[in-house]
Fold these 3 entries.
Entry 1:
Amino acid sequence: MTYKKINKIVFIFLVMILSFSNVAFAKTKNKSIIQKNVIKKEIVKPTEEKKSIDKVDKNTESVKIEVGDNSYQIMVDPGSTVYNAMEKLNNDKNSGFSFHSKEYSSLGNFVDSINGVPGTPGKYWLYYLDGKKASMGVSKNKIKSGDVVTWKQESF
């Protein structure tokens, strides 16, 4: 064999190797990209679902508000006050709950009517948190998941 033929064969062989390696590399790269996408879908999707579950479980608090024979369940943000929960319930037109309050700059909000029933002379709307008479105003008292706020008309 002549030197030219050997060079030609080596050249063709190198071109074939490079072509196959590019094809193999491209397939591997595509396969890698596909695998990454699959992995992302497998990892990201459950994480997204978990976030939405966490949002319900950890980013909201279930609180019960009782007024006479009526009981209302409401989901509120962590760190919410009794007033925030009542306001959210009041804004839900389907809840059947309403209240009116007056704000005093030094004391906070004072509830003077619930579900259309105003306080009467000598009797005021007072609330209990988990069965204990509240020691602070509705706009100051923070609630947590599972708390029960019970409203009663009493004198003080």
Entry 2:
Amino acid sequence: MSAPSSPTAPDGRESSPSALEGHMDDHIGSHTVNPWLVLVIVCLAQFMVVLDATIVNVALPSIQRDLELSPENLQWIVNSYTLVFGGFLLLGGRAADLLGRKRLFVAGLVVFSAASLVNAMATTGEMLIVARGFQGLGGALVSPAALSIITTTFDEGPARTKALAVWGGIAAGGAAFGLLLGGILTDALSWEWNFLINVPIGIAAIAAALRFVPESRHEGAQRHFDVAGAVTVTSGLMVLVYAIVKATDWGWTDPSTIAWFAGGIALLTAFVLIELRSPQPLVRLSFFNKRWISTANATMFVVAGGMFGMFYFASLYVQQILGYDPLQAGLAFLPVSFGIMLGAGISQQLIGRVGVKPVVITGMTLASIGLITLASTTQVGGTYLALLAGLLPMSIGMGFTFVPLTLIATSGVEPSDAGLASGVFNTSQQIGGALGLAILASFSVSKTESVLGDLATRPSPDQLQLAVVEGFQTAFIVAAGLMVVGLLLVTFALRRRDVKNVHTGEALPVAV
């Protein structure tokens, strides 16, 4: 069903009734609010959050030396951020709808910036790991609030498509740029600057948000928190991610791994039962009756695993096999950032001409080709140019993929559910990425151990490198398989009639 035409606001943007259904402390359609300035502010914050997921990767050896961390504790500098970030995203999205999106956005920035300062001052590994967890909490408040601010600021149509193209480029490119910036800061200054740089950026974003970002929330809903639902889904996701992360150490069939997985599944099952009975559920389960939303989130879940794996294993390859130092490793991923942004910009233009489905199919096809190419070009005697032959199609494909998937996952959603849609989509990305990376790491380690196990004598350095590279190649092949699964989901589960109006701004059917 097509929406009626909307009057034009003084800033040239269409003002639709749906965008104003929630309570607005500052009127989004007013000439006093520049929507593109709002976009710059929320994208700056999101860039900082995404950056921190990867910026420490090339600094880990320096952190390990300075804080005298064991290899087991070192991984928790990354994992504590992922655990808390992934576990609290859904709660952060719903809280933004009920308490105010701007309020949660600013609160998240405060927590994130303060935790960054503590990280920079850390004198022990335990202090750094705990502060990284608080950074993840801040990110879990910022990300869904930021995306829902965009979807309530820009009406469905060309303006939102353009805004989400920028968002998609920032969200995907920030991870690649994090590797570059981490290498530069660690090499030129010290690892502490990977965290300290967030403080002035965070303060600037807070000040700008307080001045220019409009407040919005779902006024019609009671300010009631489904406490039982929030506790079970958050703890369930955190337990599940913990099991995924530890499975690479314990083994997938170890009783401890199975017990943690069973605990996570039990908590998430309890969450579903609670939501079916709650008068004010944290997640209205009928939300997933929208076929396009379920498909977009399922696709992002598997695609994120392939993307996270590409960054992780390609970063290890250039440092462990090609012998790059932190700065060289960071610079090696600069073309990836450009590729993602290029893909996002082109996809925004193509969506208006051919629709979202052909664009996302093209993107995942390119990404699959890039990963398969990486599996063949990562060699012990390989070169950077050979590696780039796989990185470029992968990065451009991800730029093509992120924008249409974000559009699909946030279109046809009631304004009262904007934060929920954002939280679910971000959760799909983070949890899918953590699960996918754990699976890829398991395949990689198993392949390496298998190659070494076939040797009759102690491996030479060359044989050890060959075994490690074969593990990387296996991981890239499995990552390509994840991309193909996503491609099949979009091709066969996403119907054209479900998304034919996404780029036009016409209303999609809403399942109740």
Entry 3:
Amino acid sequence: MIENEENRVIKIFHGPQHPGITGNMSVELDLVGETIQKARTHVGYLHRGFEKLVERRTIIQAFTIVCRICVPEPDPNEENFARAIEGLAGIEISQRAKYIRVMVLEMARIGAQMLWMGGQSGSVGLGTVAQWSIYDRDLILDLFEELTGGRVYHMYIYPGGVRRELPDGFLDRLEQFLDYLEERLPKYDNIFFDNSTFKKRAIGVGVINRDEALKHGYVGQALRGCGIKRDVRKDNPYLVYNELDFDIPTFEGGDVYARALVRRQEIRESIKILRQVIKQMPTEGDIMQKIPKHRKFKIPKNDILVSSESARGEYNYYMAGDGSEKIRRMQVKGPSLIHGFTLLENMLKGEELSNVAMIMNSLGICPPEIER
């Protein structure tokens, strides 16, 4: 506790044990009463140092590390890593493998949005929604376990394609889940998105200015919640996204509620994408191209930048090789660094303590991306 001439300033740490924290991170808050005067983000309580770990390992060893950069949605890391290696090595994967990758990414997107819904609803005391959404996310994890053998870390998207073929009847079971989820969404609207408690808590809170969002490089829902239509899948298509029909939801307002509505509509768009993937996926084609053996896989002396759209926004991988079996330099830029520091710390000033968890969850911060 600190005394000054005008007010009594109380310093507290919000997390990492607090259930409203997005991962094992902490925000140091200076309070006068219930009002935040200053906020400082602290990370380093979880996985870290990924970039240097990758640079000291061969490709197959590094492949098992990158999915840990964001635990709730590891698959964009796998895909960016694989696509960067393929770009450097001149490997072209089959259309079937591309469709399977899109399927995995959109399944992961839905899973991440359901996890967000649980945290966002829990931050305003709507525990029933959290129980529903975590259960529904488990149904996606069941499918991932069937496909990859893992529920959280899948390690399925590998340079050259994907590691294994789809199990018999997998697409049918995926479609059954999509039917189920589509029927559930109106119930989520009733209990959460249209809930007067959530609206009163979220509308006008955590507002992001449109011009500031563009100036500071905010991505994902932080942009689309300001009415700015930006999405790498449309702006710079990769895999087979240019062959699929889907929309980029945007809402005006720039507040917690606008960002929530964006995520709600993105779930519906992912369902639309997955239905097209099920219908259009080629039945023939190698799921894995022939690649050099482990110790003979040399990374050409060149560099590359690849981008994708995660559930939380734009994801970038820079990779450089020097002709050896190890990556000379890798750099990861996800949404969390700018959202967790520049945006969160400025946004919390003047807010009430009770809004901290709700604002943090609306930004989709994944702490290992910061201390990567």
